[in-house]
C-alpha cells in the first residue's frame, strides 16, 4: 500500500493544507494519507498553540474524506516528536507499506538540519509540495542516491500559512476563504486563539484598513515568539506589536499635532511620523501607559542606539511578520533566530542602502542604530 504521511502543527488546519494533501493523493496515486498533528513542533517556535485534542478534532473536520486518516501517534507522546521516530513507529505498524512523507517545498531548505535526516530518507520518500510560484528546489547538497528519494510535486500552490490564518481569525478578516466552515465553527465555538486584546482590535479596526490590520496581527505574533525566545514579557511584546502602527492612517495634520516639535529632517519624512505620533496618541488617551510598550512603539521604524530588549523585539518583528514578502525576508527571519542584533545589523544596513540609493535622507537614529550594532559585534 502506498501511504502518505502529512505531519504538522495544524494550528489550525486550513485549505492550504487540504490542497497539498489532495495534490499528493493525485500526483503520487496514494492509497491513503495519514494526517499527523504534532504535540510540540521541534523545528519552530509555536505561537498561540491550541490544545492537542482541539487540533486533532479540527483535523478530523478538515480531512473527512475516506482517503485521510487522522493519527494521534505524535500527540500521545506528549513531547517533541521527530520525524524519524514517527516513521520508525509507522514502519512497525505497517511493515508492508511504502511511505511518502509530504512536506512543503520550503522545508527542503533546512531538511539537512533535521534530526537524523539521512535515516528519514532510508525510511520513506520525501515529497515536497510547491509552496510558492516558480519555486525550483536546490538539491545540489544531496547525493545522487539521496536525490532519488526526494520528489518535487510541481502543482499550483495555495499560498497561506497557519500564522496568517490565526492573524485573520483574530482580526476577523477573510477567514471563510481559507478555513473550512466546519473548522471555523469549531474554532468559534471553543474560543480558540482568543486573547485579551479585542478592545484594542476594535480601536485598530476603526483606524486602519484590512491589510494594515493583518500586518499588525503578524507583528504581534512575531513579537510574542521573539519575546519567548529572548526573555522579554510576551504579553507586552504582543500588545506593542499589535498597536505599533495605530496612527499609520491618521491625517498628516492630526499626526503633526500629536508629535509637536520635529526636526527639519523629520518634517520632510512623513514615513517616520507614525512611530512618533502613536505613543503620544496611546498615552494621552489612557489606552496604554506602560513605558516599555510605548518606547518600543516609538522606535520601531528608525531604531536607535542603545535600544532596550523590547525595542529590539518590536523593531525586528516589524521586519519578519508572516505577511512580509520582500526579497530578503527569509534571511532576516533566519538572523532573528540567531540573535536580535544580527537581524538589526542586517536590516539597518539594508535600510540605509535603500535610502541612499534613492537619494533620500537617512534619519540620524537609523545611522546611530547601525553604528551601535557594529560596536556590538566589535567592528
Quick structural overview:
The chain has helices at residues 15-28, 52-62, 83-93, 117-123, 144-147, 162-171, 181-190, 198-207, 210-230, 234-243, 252-259, 264-267, 273-284, 291-298, 309-320, 329-338, 340-357, 364-376, and strands at 2-8, 32-37, 68-70, 98-104, 125-129, 150-153.
Describe the protein in words:
Strands 3-2-1-4-5-6 form a 6-stranded parallel beta sheet, with helices on both faces. The chain has 379 residues and is α/β, with parallel strands linked by helices. It is built from 18 helices and 6 strands. The longest helix has 21 residues, at 210-230. 51% of the residues lie in helices and 8% in strands. The N and C termini lie far apart (59 Å). The chain is globular and about 75 Å long.
How many E strands?
6
Give the strand line-up of the largest sheet.
3-2-1-4-5-6
Order of helices and strands: EHEHEHEHEHEHHHHHHHHHHHHH
Shape: globular
The assigned structural class equals: alpha/beta
Radius of gyration: 23 Å
Mean pLDDT: 92
Taken as a percent bin, the fraction of beta residues is: 5-15%
- The tally of helices reads 18
* Oligomeric state of shown chains: single chain
**Biggest sheet layout:** 6 strands, parallel
Q: Main attributes?
A:
single chain; 379 residues; alpha/beta; six-stranded parallel sheet; 6 strands; 51% helix; 8% strand; globular
Describe the protein's topology.
Layout: E1 2-8, H1 15-28, E2 32-37, H2 52-62, E3 68-70, H3 83-93, E4 98-104, H4 117-123, E5 125-129, H5 144-147, E6 150-153, H6 162-171, H7 181-190, H8 198-207, H9 210-230, H10 234-243, H11 252-259, H12 264-267, H13 273-284, H14 291-298, H15 309-320, H16 329-338, H17 340-357, H18 364-376
Parallel strand pairs: 1-2, 1-4, 2-3, 4-5, 5-6
Helix pairs in contact: 2-7, 3-4, 6-9, 9-10, 9-15, 10-14, 10-15, 11-13, 13-14, 14-15, 15-17, 16-17, 17-18
Amino acid at each position: 500500500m502506498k501511504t502518505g504521511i502529512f505531519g504538522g502543527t495544524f494550528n489550525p488546519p486550513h485549505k492550504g493544507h487540504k490542497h497539498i494533501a489532495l495534490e499528493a493523493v493525485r500526483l503520487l496515486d496514494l492509497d491513503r494519507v495519514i494526517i499527523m498533528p504534532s504535540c510540540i513542533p521541534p523545528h519552530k517556535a509555536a505561537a498561540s498553540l491550541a490544545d492537542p485534542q482541539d487540533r486533532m478534532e479540527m483535523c478530523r473536520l478538515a480531512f473527512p474524506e475516506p482517503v485521510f486518516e487522522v493519527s494521534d501517534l505524535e500527540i500521545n507522546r506528549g513531547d517533541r516528536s521527530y520525524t524519524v521516530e514517527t516513521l520508525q513507529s509507522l514502519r512497525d505498524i505497517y511493515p508492508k507499506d511504502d511511505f511518502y512523507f509530504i512536506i512543503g517545498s520550503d522545508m527542503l531548505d533546512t531538511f539537512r538540519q533535521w534530526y537524523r535526516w539521512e535515516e528519514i530518507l532510508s525510511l520513506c520518500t520525501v515529497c515536497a509540495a510547491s509552496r510558492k510560484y516558480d519555486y525550483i528546489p536546490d538539491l545540489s547538497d544531496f547525493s545522487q542516491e539521496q536525490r532519488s528519494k526526494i520528489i518535487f510535486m510541481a502543482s499550483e500552490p495555495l499560498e497561506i500559512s497557519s500564522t496568517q490564518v490565526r492573524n485573520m481569525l483574530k482580526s476577523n478578516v477573510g477567514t471563510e476563504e481559507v478555513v473550512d466552515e466546519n473548522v471555523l465553527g469549531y474554532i468559534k465555538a471553543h474560543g480558540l486563539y482568543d486573547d485579551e486584546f479585542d478592545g484594542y482590535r476594535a480601536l485598530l479596526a476603526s483606524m486602519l484598513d484590512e491589510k494594515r490590520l493583518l500586518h499588525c496581527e503578524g507583528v504581534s505574533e512575531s513579537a510574542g515568539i521573539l519575546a519567548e525566545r529572548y526573555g522579554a514579557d510576551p504579553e507586552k511584546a504582543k500588545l506593542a506589536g499589535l498597536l505599533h502602527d495605530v496612527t499609520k492612517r491618521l491625517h498628516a495634520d492630526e499626526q503633526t499635532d500629536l508629535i509637536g516639535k520635529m526636526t527639519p529632517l523629520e518634517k520632510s519624512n512623513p514615513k517616520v511620523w507614525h512611530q512618533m505620533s502613536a505613543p503620544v496618541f496611546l498615552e494621552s488617551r489612557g489606552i496604554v501607559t506602560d513605558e516599555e510598550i510605548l518606547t518600543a512603539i516609538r522606535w520601531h521604524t528608525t531604531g536607535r542606539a542603545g535600544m532596550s530588549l523590547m525595542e529590539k523585539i518590536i523593531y525586528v518583528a516589524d521586519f519578519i511578520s508572516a505577511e512580509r514578502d520582500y526579497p530578503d525576508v527569509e534571511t532576516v527571519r533566519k538572523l532573528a533566530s540567531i540573535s536580535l542584533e544580527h537581524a538589526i545589523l542586517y536590516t539597518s544596513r539594508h535600510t540605509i542602502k535603500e535610502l541612499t540609493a534613492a537619494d533620500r535622507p537617512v534619519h540620524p537614529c537609523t545611522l546611530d542604530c547601525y553604528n551601535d550594532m557594529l560596536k556590538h559585534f566589535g567592528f
